[in-house]
Specification:
Radius of gyration: 21 Å
Order of helices and strands: HHHEEHHHHHHHHH
Strand content: under 5%
Helix content: over 70%
Low-confidence stretches: 1-8, 232-239
Mean pLDDT: 84
CATH superfamily of the largest domain: GntR ligand-binding domain-like
CATH topology of the largest domain: Four Helix Bundle (Hemerythrin (Met), subunit A)
Strand order of the largest sheet: 1-2
Shape: elongated
Distance between the termini: 55 Å
Amino acid sequence: MQVGNMTRPRVHQTVVATLARRILSGEIAEGEILPSMEELSVERGVSRSAMREAVKVLSAKGLVEVRPRIGTRVRPRSSWNLMDPEVLSWCGGDLDARILTSLLQCRMLIEPGAAALAAANASAGQLAVIEDAFHRMRAAASINDRVQADLDFHVAVLRASGNLFLEQWGGTISSVLLAAFRLSTETAPSDDEAFGVHAEVLEAIRLRNELRADRAMRRLLTVAAKDLHVEEKEAKKAS
């Protein structure tokens, strides 16, 4: 019994994540009706009750809706709870052009202002955390270390803003930021430009220069968009 109790949650989580990734990646398109519970159960090798529970989770997160006599339909992307940390984690590295573009637009609206607030409000301890993340980026021996330090840098800036909502926003989207940072790091022609602009952000916050911090963060996000080739991906999708 103990083994079964320990195994069941893992099986449930795997089923939910697998089905969610198929929807988020577009493998199962918006508006498409999912196979029956029995078919899905056979396909995944789990009980129908486990599959029903998985569908309930996806329904609660806005990915699907269960309609009597129709079945389980994938809802439009506008209904998906993309701010849910678990949904963002299911996106993983499979961030399509629309998600990347929307993420960068959101960051451009939020992070420059957060950097300006950090310049005004950061404590000595918070500034030290930002500096530590920057130095770890420079010293990183692997992409994983580099990407984690990059995430830590941006989250630290948000926390140093002194705004409760910005602090929580950084934690909420950390999983999708991590995936985006990995993509930009892997596709960037050189780390030099990104490091240089991170240094500008850090220096502006250290000097308590709000306007300079805002502008530096805007430049940093522009570099990120270029490294991610967002405009090229959007153009390909439209063609």
